[in-house]
Design goal:
Strand order of the largest sheet: 1-2-3
Mean pLDDT: 88
Number of strands: 3
Radius of gyration: 13 Å
Low-confidence stretches: none
Distance between the termini: 30 Å
Structural class: alpha/beta
């Protein structure tokens, strides 16, 4: 997906027949990977990359039950294992 706005995610999920609340996005960009998905009712796991673009640094996520942040992709499985 070249553009990652809420409307783009909704269009994709509608095309795939997936409800937003059943969708989980894992990505390294809060601004384009995670926040739009959270805003439409989905879930997100953020894996920060050691280099972050300046425009990404302003992105923040308030406390949400549908959001997690891990420091390495290997820790994603720990989230699913509980």
């Amino acid at each position: 997906m070249s553009d990652k706005k809420e409307s783009d995610y909704l269009k994709l999920l509608t095309h795939l027949g997936i409800a937003p609340e059943d969708f989980l996005m894992i990505g390294n960009s809060l601004k384009s990977d995670i926040l739009p998905v959270l805003n439409i009712g989905g879930s997100g796991i953020h894996i920060p990359y050691h280099t972050t673009w300046q425009h990404e640094k302003s992105a923040r996520v308030e406390d949400r039950t549908n959001f997690k942040e891990v420091d390495h992709i290997s820790k994603v499985l720990e989230i699913f294992r509980g």
